[in-house]
Amino acid sequence: MLAAVAAIFPVLVIYAIWPTIVAGYRSAVLAVCILGLCTASLFALEGLNAYRQAPIPVNGKVTSFHDREISQCGFPSHHLLISDTDLRQTQAWVKPGVAVLLYLTPAGDAAYLGPAQTDWPCITSSLGQ
Question: Are residues 94 and 64 part of one domain?
Answer without folding.
Answer: yes
